[in-house]
Each structure stands twice: as structure tokens, then as C-alpha cells.
Amino acid sequence: MNYLVVGAGNASRPVARLLNYLNHNVVITDLKDISEFKIEFQRSLIEMEKEGVILDLGNQNPTLDNIEAVYMPPTLPDFAPIAKLINDSDVKIL
To answer: What is this structure's pTM?
Structure first.
């Protein structure tokens, strides 16, 4: 299954890792570029990429093309453009 994990913060990184471990295709997206994260988060993201997670960082307009399900962290505001895109789509929300 193809998953989009919104955000690269503390709530989303473990979800992305778990989904990847379960052999799903995982894309993690965040408005921030990797250089904007603390160094320990950067290391974690780089390790996840080595494990097979696709990093879509610094993208202001992520897409839901080929995405079957999405994880949205509880901290994601309803007014965020990505939240509106997801809620207006037919993808499954975790």
C-alpha cells in the first residue's frame, strides 16, 4: 500500500518507520527542508531514507498521486493546505 505521512515531527516519524517496516511504500512530507530540523532529527530522517522511506521535504505543494492512505498527526491544523487537500480527497485517513 502507498502511504503519505504528513510531517516529519515526533508524531509522524515513528508511524513512517513502522509502515515502512511492514513493507508499505512510504512518503514522508514536511514543509521544512531537512536542514531546518535539529541535527538528531536530520540523522533520523537520513536513516529512514536509507531504510526505504521517501523524503519529500521542503515541498510546499505535496501531491496525493498514487497515495492510498494518509497519516495526519494530531498537531496538524485543520486549516493547513495539506489537511484540506486530504479531507477533500478519497484517500483513507489513518
So the answer is: 0.94
